[in-house]
Amino acid sequence: MKKILLGALGAIALSLSAPASAADLAARPYAKAPPPMIAAIYDWSGFYIGLNGGGGSAHKCWDNYTFAGALVGGEGCHNATGGTVGGQLGYRVQSGSWVFGVEGQGNWADFSGSNTSVLFPAQLNRSRIDAFGLVTGQIGYAWNNVLAYVKGGAAVVGDKYDIFTTPGGVLIASARETRWGGTVGAGLEVGFAPNWSVGVEYNHIFTGNSTLTFNNAAAVAVQSDRISQDVDLGLIRVNYRWGGPIIAKY
């Protein structure tokens, strides 16, 4: 009986000391949750201005006509090639991954080429593009700071044509025109800083046919030719954009 009583008293004493022992334990330290990950999203929205440079080739075919409009025959074709430099100004707006924009571009150019006339072997036909401009709309898709786009719109080309004697190179007659047409193209642009991007672009300009009267130095009409023209351009572009900085998205 005495052993049972002593055991019961020990159990009661142990139960009374347990809460006090638990109270003496140190509180568990609080661990702050890690901050959420933030992904930088490049925003293509805003106005931009830039420079471009590259090269181009214009394919031209000459057909001789009488002044009354009757076809005489083909004089042959040539490619007018050379370099170009210019600038562009535009605006883009981004919705999700899609990017829409408008742009105006103007370039100085020096694309020139020539061929000996098939109809008149004593003549050399030379053509030159000295300027062109593009007004286009754009639709693109962005992967953060990488933008791929297509474009299309109107084009205008400044052309000069000369006829020389061959051999000898004496100028016989000249003609000049500003020709309107259309353009389609595509480009790839990469943003390498919050407001700067660099890219490459291809454009094709199609201007159809145009009939020109060639005059000599005395302003006397010498001959008439219908000239077709298509132009291919390869450009490197650098743009500075404002109005759409990098934003953060959780």
Overview of this protein structure:
This protein has 250 residues and is mainly beta. It has a domain of 90 residues. The protein is built from 1 helix and 10 strands. It has an 8-stranded antiparallel beta barrel. Strands 1-10 form a two-stranded antiparallel sheet. Strand 5 and strand 6 form a beta hairpin. It starts with a helix and ends with a strand. The N terminus and C terminus are likely disordered.
Defining key terms:
eight-stranded antiparallel barrel; 1 helix; two-stranded antiparallel ribbon; mainly beta; disordered N terminus; 10 strands; 250 residues; single chain; disordered C terminus
> Spans of 5+ residues with little confidence (pLDDT < 50)?
1-25, 245-250
What is the H/E order? HEEEEEEEEEE
First-to-last CA distance: 73 Å
The biggest beta sheet, please?
Answer: 8 strands, antiparallel, barrel
What would you report as the Rg, rounded to the nearest angstrom? 37 Å
Write a brief caption for the model.
With 250 residues, this protein is mainly β.
How does the SSE layout of this entry go?
Layout lengths: L1 H22 L15 E3 L4 E20 L5 E25 L2 E19 L6 E21 L2 E20 L5 E23 L2 E20 L5 E22 L4 E3 L1
Antiparallel strand pairs: 1-10, 2-3, 2-9, 3-4, 4-5, 5-6, 6-7, 7-8, 8-9
